[in-house]
Design the sequence.
């Protein structure tokens, strides 16, 4: 198993293209399926121990991977059972089924096991499973067979009687998963949209998802990601590249013997009517490693290392300022608009957050001649770019192109996009980040990275990673002040 940090993220179509390229070089689909199933079997064997394993196989190649895994597990001496939704449809899946010498139970009639492996659908699902009846492998009358064939099932299948709540594919999956001690999904839990991250049907929450060949958007985008549990990558011998990658820990240099406060980066934060927000951004920048932070506005209070200066054009004109944060607690009145205008014409690299995002339009941002990082949450994003049913990766990419800025589309599934198409997606964030002020902390952390001279995409990625790591270190029930302080430990761990 491979940790997914820094790994390429491929859509369903991109993954098919990568596999087709390998097949065009002479590697058969059956060979790829055997690699996948064997890798799955080794993981399951290690985790299952002596416990019985139940593998649920669908009609496609995901099910074929399951049949191979079952065969290899049996050869390794494991106690393994197979339950099928229907007969295999693809040639490779039929070949894998033929290699399994054990009994094939029906999904409708399978009894639970301590270890369950979901190989029903995985990548490529485009329809909900909630309304799909659970068929058996019994012979049916012609009319019943025709009815099921129209739903995409082979002839000769009959809907089995089941208890209330278990009459659909997803219902039966929930029943078997709830009875298991360990739940493992092959590629994706059945019921999730691969590219959109939508829950087409709500599957059980799995303990582990084994991504085959590449990470997929649904492993990271919400709400799909919440059902995946821990995600690990299995190498099946398919080379993959992508402009989209999973966020990884940044490489940040420690200060050397010749370092001083300005070489480490000077950041300015513009205060507004809610001075606590700008205080949080400034404190976060200091804890993230900035050498000098000045807060421009009529504010007072600790820490003493923070340089508080009245806002003025003269203070803003300091050519030692490496980056400028504008937006946290800014307000939307005349003073806020005046300070925003001064920031936009200051010729400093910008992190634009909070209220400032509500006072701008994409055209004005694109006209700026300095590096810009935008940090909107969903509401701010919709206000600036309009609502859309497109997936979060697509929306972030389009926004980055529209503004010629790096866009940090915040949330439980933060997506970072650059104008050149590069995308980085953070793994699941702490649910406890859903508290006031944490976005201000993120703006300050990113500001420290940009002031230190990092490329805008690298600065955004470093800030997001530090922010997420600080939250993980804190555990539950923290506040934004705690988060800003915890950036010190996150930075120190690199």
Sequence:
């Amino acid at each position: 198993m491979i940790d997914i940090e820094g790994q390429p993220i491929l859509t369903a179509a991109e993954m098919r293209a990568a596999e087709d390229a390998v097949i065009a070089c002479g590697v058969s689909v059956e060979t790829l399926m055997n690699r996948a199933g064997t890798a799955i079997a080794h993981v399951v064997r290690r985790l299952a121990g002596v416990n019985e394993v139940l593998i649920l196989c669908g009609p496609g190649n995901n099910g074929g991977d399951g049949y191979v895994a079952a065969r290899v597990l049996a050869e390794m001496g494991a106690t393994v059972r197979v339950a099928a939704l229907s007969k295999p449809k693809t040639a490779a899946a039929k070949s894998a089924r033929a290699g399994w010498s054990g009994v094939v139970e029906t999904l409708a009639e399978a009894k639970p096991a301590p270890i369950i492996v979901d190989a029903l659908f995985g990548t490529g699902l485009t329809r909900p499973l909630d309304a799909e009846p659970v068929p058996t492998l019994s012979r049916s009358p012609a009319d019943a067979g025709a009815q099921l064939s129209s739903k995409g099932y082979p002839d000769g299948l009959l809907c089995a009687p089941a208890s209330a709540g278990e009459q659909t594919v997803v219902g039966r999956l929930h029943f078997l998963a709830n009875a298991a001690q360990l739940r493992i999904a092959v590629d994706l839990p059945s019921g999730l949209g691969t590219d959109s991250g939508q829950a087409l049907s709500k599957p059980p929450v799995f303990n582990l998802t084994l991504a085959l060949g590449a990470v997929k958007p649904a492993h990271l985008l919400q709400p799909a990601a919440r059902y995946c549990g821990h995600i690990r990558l299995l190498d099946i011998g398919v080379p993959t590249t992508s402009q989209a990658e999973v966020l990884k820990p940044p490489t940040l240099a420690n200060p050397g013997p010749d370092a001083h406060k300005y070489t480490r980066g000077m950041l300015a934060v513009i205060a507004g009517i809610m001075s606590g927000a700008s205080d949080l951004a400034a404190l976060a920048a200091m804890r993230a490693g900035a050498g000098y932070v000045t807060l421009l506005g009529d504010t007072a209070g600790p820490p003493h290392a923070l340089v508080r200066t009245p806002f003025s054009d003269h203070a803003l004109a300091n050519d030692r300022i490496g980056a400028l944060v504008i937006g946290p607690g800014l307000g939307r009145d005349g003073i806020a608009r005046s300070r925003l205008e001064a920031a936009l014409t200051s010729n400093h690299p910008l992190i634009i957050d909070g209220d400032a995002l509500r006072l701008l339009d994409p055209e004005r941002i694109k006209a700026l001649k300095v590096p810009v990082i935008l940090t909107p949450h969903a509401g701010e994003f919709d206000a600036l770019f309009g609502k859309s049913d497109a997936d979060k990766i697509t929306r972030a990419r389009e926004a980055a192109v529209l503004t010629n800025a790096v866009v940090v589309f915040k949330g439980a599934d933060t997506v970072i996009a650059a104008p050149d198409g590069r995308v980085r997606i953070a793994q699941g964030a702490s649910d406890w980040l859903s508290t006031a002020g944490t976005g201000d902390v993120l703006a300050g952390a990113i500001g420290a990275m940009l002031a230190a001279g990092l490329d805008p995409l690298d600065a955004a990625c470093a800030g997001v990673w530090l922010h997420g790591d600080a939250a993980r270190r804190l555990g539950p029930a923290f506040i934004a002040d705690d988060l800003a302080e915890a950036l010190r430990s996150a930075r120190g761990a690199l």
